[in-house]
Amino acid sequence: MGKLKYGSNEQLIDLARQARERAYAPYSGFRVGAVVECRDGRLFTGCNIENSSYGLSICAERVALGKALSEGVRGFSRIAVIADTHSPVPPCGACRQVILELCDEDLLVIMANLQGQVETRTINELLPAPFDQSFLQK
């Protein structure tokens, strides 16, 4: 998306909302949008992509991070996620694990819903005791 620097969480949420409109969710109807902000200011959006073999579905957060990684980005400052939920939608457990693997512990996760509710936490707050590379060391 180029070198755009977004100052406010609301602007990131708006981009996530736009990405949500492109979601492919014919089975559940549960559409999710996300945007990851890179430290260099670039932004990458993602939407969830369902599959009739449900285990092959991909979450919006992982799509956004995958797009950034495939472009060579390795530093992130914020990620925003939005869905049509009763309260701000958090990343699922798998996404929390992936976010923590690829981002710093203090990465801000901006969670929102279509009603305008917003909650912000660090990824470390959302996943306080992760399985990480320290368990793989001999």
Describe this structure in words.
With 138 residues, the chain is an alpha+beta fold. The protein has four helices and five strands; from the N terminus they run H-E-E-H-E-H-E-E-H. It is globular, with a radius of gyration of 14 Å. The mean pLDDT is 94.
Give me a quick take on this structure.
This protein has 138 residues and is of the alpha+beta class. The protein has helices at 9-20, 60-70, 93-102, 123-126; strands at residues 32-38, 43-47, 76-83, 108-113, 118-122.
Profile the largest sheet.
5 strands, mixed
* Derived structural class: alpha+beta
The CA-CA distance between the termini, in Å, is 41 Å
Give unreliable regions as ranges: none
Number of helices: 4
Multimer state: single chain
Radius of gyration based on Cα positions: 14 Å
- Helical fraction equals 25-40%
Tell the overall outline: globular
> Mean pLDDT, rounded to whole units?
94
Secondary-structure element sequence?
HEEHEHEEH
Strand fraction equals 15-25%
User: How many DSSP E strands?
Assistant: 5
Strand order of the largest sheet: 2-1-3-4-5
